[in-house]
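Q&A FORM
Asked by: J.P.
Topic: structure of Nuclease SbcCD subunit C

PROVIDED:
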Amino acid sequence: MADEQLRDYVLQRADDDEGLSEHARLVVLATFGEPGDLAEVLSADATPQRVVDALNAPEPEPETPVGAYLTSIAVQGFRGIGAHLELPLHPGPGLVIVAGRNGSGKSTLAEGLELALTGVNSRWAHKGKVWSQVWRNLHAGDPATIRVGLAEQGRGATVVGVDWPPGDVAVTDLRRWVQRAGRKQDDPAVLGWSNALAMYRPMLSYDELGGILDGAPSEFYDQLYKLLGLEQLTVAMARLDAEVKALREPSAVLKKSRDALRPILQAHDDERAATALALIGTTTPDLGAVAALITDGGATAPGAWRQAATLTMPEADEVEQAAAALRTAGAAQADAERTADALAADRVQFLETSLEFHDRHGTQPCPVCAEGTLDDAWVVRARAALAAEQEAASSLRVARSATHRARQTLVALVRGVPAPPAEDADLTTIAAARLAYASFSALPLDDDGALADHVVAGLPALRMAYDALREEAAGRIDVRDDAWHPVAVDLAAWVKHAEASAAAAPKLKIATEAQKWLQDNAATLRNERLAPLADEAREIWAALRQESNVDLAAIRLAGQKTSRRVELRAGVDGADTEALGVMSQGELQALALAVFIPRATSDESPFRFVVLDDPIQAMDPSKIEGFLSVLVGLAADRQVVVFTHDDRLPAAVRRSSAPARIIDVTRSINSVVSVHDSLNPATRALDDAYRIARDDAVPDEVKRRAVGVLCREAFEATLWDVYASRGFGRGVATADVEDAWEAATTIRTRIALALGADANDVGAVDTWLDRRTAHRIALAVVNKGVHQGVHDFVEAIRNVRAAVGDLGRR
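REPLIED BY: S.T.
REPLY: Here is the structure written out as tokens.
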């Protein structure tokens, strides 16, 4: 899904625009959704409710990205550092100033960090090859390695490494790797920081600082665009542009197809061509009618041709079998007729009556001849004669029925033969077919034998005539269809284009409406999206400007495509102007920082650190104090590391009460570089306490209170540094570390946390206290001394310093 805030900007403006249709509003919203959402919203008259609900549903609160702090930067054999050097860093919020003169090797540490995380060095990125040729340290260049220690929240210790093979190799012949605790080395891509390094780049060198405003206008524009998530606006507009272009394509293809088809139809002599020409020329053509011209070629041929091409007749075997069956049935009937004479039926009736007479009256003289006797012997003889007569009569009925059926079958075969067409239709063989049919269908129905002979004898002539007629008709149809086929293919293609155009038309109307709205509102959307960052940049500028007469006004994204740029407006004593043209070099540098810092400290960034290399070279003294206040504010929830050769920043820290750690970088012969703590909050507090203790002008009553408070401040600052560094180094979430610290409300429970024990582990604390007398004395000073005061000031400070030193070495 698109970034929720940007989507909400778009949705709110679309909702407020009464001139935008509901369907177009959904289309605008869908351009910021999943890839399939736009097509689905445009695919139906009524957008599925599921899609509507999904597009309008509020997204869940985004999870805070898993943060990463720096634990160390180690360099060997690279640039200005020869022997192995490690810069230890506390993984957690706080300000660290790494100070050293030009050439001391401090910038090599910053460059090593950048190279390890990004694979490139911005100092060389846009310069000639000579800048990157001598990259290996001249005094101790082999092995050449970089190691960056990270504390990933939720994962623990991680190392990002860079190795070069020995010998004269290019700086680009490096191997970068990542190794998480307990795992093998892997590709840096597993960190998932590729996009984040581009959008929320946490490192800024002096060269990059100038490049922010001095580079091509489009580059600065693109950087802000990515940071603000506005590339999704570009993606959305490009997606909608592509959809509109795709929806317009069917109409363009249809026109091209129509233009190519029109002269073909005009030149064709088939009557279908004229019909098709009229149909495709209309604004809303009847596609069904056009399709019929394509698929119903045979149906549009002359009727006589179609009828002649489908003429059928029985097979010769079927006719022979039917004729043979008639002959056989006729012969059987003749035999039965010879067997059963004309008196057979009367005799049967007479015998049946006589038998009934005997059944009623018994033995009696014959009533017919009066000579014989109708006795039992007569009954036997009569019944036998009756059976014989009945069988002969039944056989005759069966024979006559069989003959009738055989005759009907043969006649039906003949009657089932269709007559040739009544129209000639230019068919040369139709006359012969008519004659053959007339002869074949003239049946001698009064003689079964003659009927059978007639049908069998007439079939070959009819078949020959019909075959010739069918072949001629089918040939004429084929010739006609062959001539029409290429046109039909072209028409079929045109129908597909017309269907696609018709289907795309309503979608195109909605998509075009949405496209115009999005184009009209894009500039406003961009600058509304930019507003929070612009406000933050102005706040930072207000802190940095100090005595400058230039007030940063509007920051706007202007133009598009090749003319895209960032407009920085300024007010000079109330007059509006372009900022870059009226600022000094120091002001430009401060402005670049004001623009960079909101990007680097975005809530969406996974980097809990910001690294600045020589950011104050052109700043006048009045801006250093403002810059320090900005750094302190950032360090409240960010690890801020500043490399500088300018002693004005460390001096500003020493003059103020800023909670910052100062690390000095020194270089000796043969590129041997070393680092050591010059100042940290605990050291500063104890130094302040010592100065107060030694100052005779300060009353003892003040000393008793101040020394105790400062010692407590130093002791607790050390406990926090030790505890937080261990927790962050193990990947514990910042909130969990801070919550556990806040829950430990006594100095003893916080000692336990710093020792790596449970807050309520009394034994661990007692063991540490027993290890050295200074530990117990220090606990008394920072505990009771805060409330009751300290009496032996110097001794109290000495013991607290010793305890702090022991804790810091854990």
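FOLLOW-UP: Residues 448-545 form the longest helix (98 residues).
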